[in-house]
Amino acid sequence: MNYPFKILMVCFSVFWMSCSTQSLFDKSGLPSITVDKDPLVLHNDSVRFKLRATIPAGLVSEERTYTLLPEYQYGEGALPLEEITVDASDLAGAGQAVEIIRNMSFPYMEGMDRGELRIKGLLEEVESGKTFSTPYITLANGIISTVNLVRVGQFVPGENIPDVGAYMSYDDDFMNMASHEVNYYFAKNAAQANPSSSNGAFISQLRSMVEKGEDIQKIIIVGMASPDEKDYSSLAATRTQVAEQQVRTQLKKLGYQGALSDVEIELQRKEPDWLLFRHLLRTFEGIDMAERDRYFDVIYAEDSYEEKVEQLKEIDSYDRFAREKFSQMQMAKVMVMMAQDRRSDPEISAMANMYIKGTASGDELTEAELARAAEFNPGLKEKQLIYEAMLKKHGSALAYNNLGVVYLNQAHRMIKISDKNQKVNEAMRLFRMSNEINESAQASHNMGQAYLMWGDYGAAYLEISQANALAKSIPEFQSFNEGKRGALDIIRGDYKLATLRLDKAPETATNLFNKGLAYFLAEDYGQAAISFEESALSNMEFGYAFYGLALVAAQNSDEERLYENLRKAAQRSPYLKRRAATDLEFKDYFDDQKYIEAIK
């Protein structure tokens, strides 16, 4: 008999609590809660708003706390936001109402535009822990994400794929000089003249240069040694001197007609250089990425050359790597610069096409001519083959950077995310290699573009800002770089600074649109309209310019221009057509038949 009685008492207690709590709400009233924006607005990478709430007198006391539970509901889920708990310590006096003002934010994620910000209250008894929850109330409907329209190289299905990145190019003066690179090899731990077959190519290439009858302007010689050879500095220096003697001897034997005494020969003393080592490591087959990373961890460390060599010996594959590859480091690199007019562009193009088709080795063209040939070939595959030939032959900063740009654009066209990320990662490695040889504005800009493709805007901004600092003496590149930096300023929420930078950028349709967007977000609608119009005049097929003009028209309640420009934007871009159907910038017109017709 006692057990049913206990159940009855518990039920009565719960009922009494709910009734008494409900009566408390009936007496005091529900909290008043508002936010300063409806719809909410995306700024930088988050949605920010100010919440104001008044908790009526009587709800909060020594016995009761009150908690506000906001969340953003979208799709099939909801994102809980920061809870706000009020207790007796927040009271100005016994029985007083509590005023709350709180700046709040949450990260923006795709799909949030058509959600809602809602909130409920939770009254809790301190001693018993019993609670009473109010129904949810809606504070704001949706998010205006106009800042996402900024163009930083991205595209959507139905749009042209923009080229990204910055190629390096040779100066015209250098194009008038043919630089040929030949290597003179030595036996391991030796610095004596080596007449072996390994130097057959050395003599053959010198003969080819002599037969052309061109004058030699300058020769640069750099000695090298591999990690498994003793006393790097002494051995490399001696090899430099021996190679100089061999160059002089062979040129004389081969009948060089010029005056050797007039040829400037520069002997360069170089500290241990890991560039060729890294190149050989990339072509070393049979090891996985983890094993390769062990090598890179060693050579990128701050230790001395001798300490690095000892650490390399501890790697399992080191002995095989040494046997297969180190002989290619036991040499002196000889760069012979010929005084000649460059080949004509048609000649360069014809020889490059022979190489692409596999009927030439690529040695027929100098590095400058290979770079020129790559400019002629718009296809990424052709550019890749040419830059890989440059990399194999020269390993220059230009070759590393430009091949990396090719990889970035190939990644841009990949559908599978894992393939895209892998290609971007390969490109970033090439940009680092380029900067290690010669730090450049182009490679830094390209690192920033790679981070953009990963969605890491903070890292992208740092790299592109660094590129601007490196381009002080290259005003044309600095202007190009400012366009990308201004676009990133929009993403970062600094709209005024974005307009200043985009003023300095080339007047392309994209840069002019971004400038108009920056003015629009800064609520300078007159200047926004001017920039959007200039963007449209620059490229009448660029739908974003007309979408921008529609945004301005909506702000000015100019329905005729709104419908006209939305129609043009929708005709040019399926993405903008879909966006206009839900873009809360146009929410006042959603039910208008003319609006519906404009975006059909």
Task: Please explain how this structure is put together.
It is a single chain. A hairpin with a 2-residue loop joins strand 2 and strand 3. Helix 13 packs antiparallel against helix 14, helix 14 runs antiparallel to helix 15 and helix 18 packs antiparallel against helix 19. 49% of the residues lie in helices and 16% in strands. The chain is elongated, with a radius of gyration of 35 Å. With 600 residues, the chain is α+β, with helices and mostly antiparallel strands. The strands form three sheets. Strands 4, 5, 6, 8, 9 and 10 form a six-stranded antiparallel β-sheet that branches. Strands 1, 2, 3, 7 and 11 form a five-stranded mixed β-sheet that branches.
The gyration radius over C-alpha positions equals 35 Å
Biggest beta-sheet profile: 6 strands, antiparallel
- Global structural class: alpha+beta
Mean pLDDT over the full residue set: 88
| Proportion of residues in extended strands | 15-25%
Q: Give the helix tally.
A: 23
What is this structure's SSE topology?
Elements: H1 2-28, E1 32-35, E2 40-43, E3 46-55, E4 64-74, E5 77-80, E6 84-86, E7 98-107, E8 116-125, E9 131-133, E10 137-141, E11 143-144, H2 172-175, E12 177-185, H3 200-211, E13 215-223, H4 232-253, E14 264-268, H5 275-282, H6 289-299, H7 305-312, H8 318-325, E15 331-339, H9 345-356, H10 367-376, H11 380-393, H12 397-412, H13 417-437, H14 441-454, H15 457-470, H16 475-492, H17 495-503, H18 509-521, H19 525-538, H20 543-555, H21 559-572, H22 574-580, H23 593-598
